[in-house]
Task: inverse folding
């Protein structure tokens, strides 16, 4: 609904259920349903069962959004979202091997909330590829909030 015909490819840590309900492309960043990610490292490090994330493969796949979530715009707090993902002790930062603090990631991705003005009661928050955000900005029906 938020993106209508502009469905972004998403990267998610636990992509199983999302892949069934979402009509766009879903990349399993933990490698369960992504053999490229699963076989990238011969020796795996990280929390048990969540050690297959590989930054090089992530940048090759280049999902439009990583870890999207859909809070109500009235509950939106981008600073809290950023604080969580950049906290080196947060679960998601651990399984994503501190990518949210990488200089290359910050160069290519940006935390934002996208609101479709036709459905302003919904928004999608996540780390967006900057060129994808630029494409959305060219369309009159999207509002983009940044930190």
Result:
């Amino acid at each position: 609904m938020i993106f209508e015909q502009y469905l972004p490819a998403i990267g998610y840590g636990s992509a199983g259920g999302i892949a069934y309900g979402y009509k766009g492309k879903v990349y399993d960043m933990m490698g369960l349903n992504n053999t490229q990610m699963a076989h990238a490292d011969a020796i795996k490090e990280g929390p048990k069962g969540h050690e297959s994330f590989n930054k090089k493969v992530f940048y090759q796949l280049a999902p439009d959004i990583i870890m999207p979530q859909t809070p109500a715009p009235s509950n939106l707090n981008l600073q809290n979202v950023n604080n969580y993902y950049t906290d080196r002790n947060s679960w998601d930062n651990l399984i994503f091997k501190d990518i949210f603090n990488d200089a290359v990631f910050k160069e290519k991705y940006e935390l934002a909330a996208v609101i479709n003005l036709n459905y302003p009661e919904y928004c999608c928050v996540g780390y967006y590829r900057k060129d994808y955000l630029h494409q959305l900005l060219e369309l009159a029906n999207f509002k983009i909030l940044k930190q």
Q: What stands out?
A: The chain has a mean pLDDT of 85. The radius of gyration is 15 Å. DSSP finds seven helices and six strands in the chain.
